[in-house]
Structures are given as C-alpha cells and as structure tokens.
Amino acid sequence: MIGCMAAADLFGGWTTAAPYQGITTEYRKIAPVNRKIEAPDKADATFAAGLNIEMNDSDPDYPAMVLANYMFGGSITSRMEDRIRNREGLSYGANTGFSASSEGRAARFQARATSNPASTPKLEAIFKEELSKAVADGFTDQEVAEAKKSFHDQRVVGRSQDAQLLQLIATREEYGRTLDWDTQMDAKVEALTAAQVNTAFRRHVDPSAISIVKAGDFKKAGVYGE
Question: Is 195 inside a domain boundary?
C-alpha cells in the first residue's frame, strides 16, 4: 500500500506527448546453425536447440502445439525426458518448451539439457532421432489421452496457487482478457485428437530447420573434434 501511494505521488501527474504503443515481436525465419562452444574446465556441458515458428496464442494450431510440446519434452514422462534421463541416464534434466506471443506472430520451440561433455554427442543424436520420429510417426491416441489429463491437472494445480493465479490474472488483464480465455483453452485442448496434434506438429516443426548450440569442455572429453 505504501509503495502504491509513493508511486502515485511520484508519477500520478506525469504525462507524455508520445502515445503508448506496445512492442510486438514478429516472426523471423533464420538459417539453422549447429555450433560448438569450448568451455574449458567446465564439469558439465549445456545443449540447447531452438526453432522460430510463425504463430501467436490465438492461432488455431496453438493448443495442439502446446500439447505436442508437453508430450515431446514438457513433462517428466515426455519422450525426450524419458529417453535421455530415465532410460539412457545422460542427463538429470532434459526438456523442451513452447511459447507464443499474444501480439505479433512470434513463437518458439526450444530444448535444453545438461550432461557430461563426453555424453553430449549421444544426447544430441538422441534429440534429433526422437524429434524426427515424433514428426514422422506422430503421437499415439493413448499418449494424447494421457497427456490431456496430466496437462489439465497441472493447470488446475497451478491456478490453485495464489502467486501463480495472481500472475495469470495480471497477464490476461494486460491483453484485455479474463480467465475465460483459460477456460476456452482447456476446452480446446480437451477436444484435440491425435490426428490434429500430429498435423499441427508436422506443419510447424521441421527437424532440418532446428538450430543447435552446445557448450562444454569437449576438447578434454575428446568429442566433436576440431
């Protein structure tokens, strides 16, 4: 309360001749890269991958992309996490994320993992393999059904936390939305079929367009060469 009063005293009468205009991030297509950064004497290596996608969160494919990301690398049981962490034991954490702006047409699909530098080439190969498989073969009906339930439960739990709920309300308010937007989003995800999710994922994710950067002490580990 004291902070609000101070802000009102300091800025309450402030005006500007320039009208407010929000900054929007627009989509840019870039040529993919695959780069190695030497980080001498670092115990762990970092792997990161990313892809720009032309989309915002009002796009018809947005709910399908959110669920596809959740199944590929957005949860502990996702394909990437299960293969790299649980089955191969290459990393304590391997995950992907998907985000799309509310204004403009800029979205991003990205992946991140840490590992022993000597294991990074295998981790990179598995990421590429699993991504190509997901695009080519798609997600199964069972995967989609299980992911929808888990994703819904996660959102409900998040909205039950005061701090997260307040942040969510503030974010919606910024773009003139209410929590009805989230209710509609829940319904859209629940209505998705495996075919719709796979079509959207194939439409927007091109494995050959993914950029990859890895950093670590690869020279000491004797991997990647020069």
Answer: yes
